[in-house]
Design brief:
The protein is mainly α. Helix content is 67%, strand content 8%.
Length: 445
Amino acid sequence: MTGGATVNGGKSIGGQLGGDLQRRILFTIMMLAIYRLGVHVPTPGVDGQAVFGFFQNQGGIFGLFNTFTGGALNQFSIFALGIMPYISASIISQLLTAVVPQLEQLKKEGEPGRRKIMQYTRYGTVVLAVIQGMAISTWLMKENFEGRPLVVSTEVAFLPFKVMTVLTLTAGTCFIMWLGEQITERGFGDGSSLIIFAGIAASIPKGAIQLYSMVSNGEMVGAVAMIIVAMMAVVIGLIVYLESGQRRIPIHFSNRGGRTALGAQASHLPLKINLSGVIPPIFASSLLMFPATLAQFTEQPWIMALRDSLNPTGGLYLVIEVILIVFFCFFYVEIVLNPNEMAENLKKGGKFIPGIRAGKSTAEYIQRVMDRINVGGALYLSAIVVLPTILISKLQVPFYFGGTSILILVGVALNTSQQLQSYLLQQRYESFLKGAKQRPRRVTF
């Protein structure tokens, strides 16, 4: 018996798979490591210690923003804006694609159209990064920490501080966007989601140390800390269970000979319980950060009051977040999954849903099933995002680690694992096909 299949040149299939898999994993880790190193590179012209102390005392929307940037905002590094301008530009791009005929036509053109839309998204990222960079530089010049100004000098290398900050932060965001695209193309999983994942995961050790210090110093009862840990474990288990759940629509297909069916086989069309994944919470959080940006350009009392009221643990923030999550659940699924295309593909493949006529009736049936699943998925996402945040705020935990963070961590980890498994199966199948020896058939008479 042989120890493993071989291909041309004597190389084992397992060795080829292992080499390619290792390269992809190492490349992904390298890109994420570069991102984490960049988080610690300071922006020129600021007092690092004063900025760190200032943001340490800031909560609300800044705590959420700092979590998504992996602590880059606290240090006001070159990656202080994080990947969020790119996420916001993606939201705007997808919204415009649904309402602008020209962009919708580009989407239908396949890969060339997708690249063109991606190019527009990059331009939008630069514009949003410039706006947010101007806002945060203007804000920093007005603030101080314990009498120490956050900005050391109004000029940096013969450039005004605002100009240097806008250039630095915009370049940092563009570099993160490039890192995410490289991970998507040459690594595993969605690059943007993995970058957010890395930022949130980096804050876990610090949060655990803070929780332990509070218990050790008597600032928190040990039973309360155990409740917090147990609650996170329950939420993680629930997310894993529901993210793996499917609604399977039965599918039959038959081999026909003449006018009678020679045999019918059964399969199913799997639809995840959460069709939209972690996209709605990420989009909702990204949009809710805009008031903090706009407030730096105006002294209008109602805008300032809106910014102050948008605390991640406040009632107004949570209500708006739930509304946005529900909206993006249906909007994202409407863009990604087209029931008409699914029905047409089933019809072309000779497949049908038992009891449902092919064509329009099948599309309507799939749409009804998706709508019902989406209702449950939106409620599930809203509950996962809101309830842990409320409980943690009631227990007065001094760091932000709510339901959105847990959902992103678990969701991205599951999606990346599934893509890894799919890649392994696909590569193994292709390798076996390439390595199979074709034996010529001898026809004897």
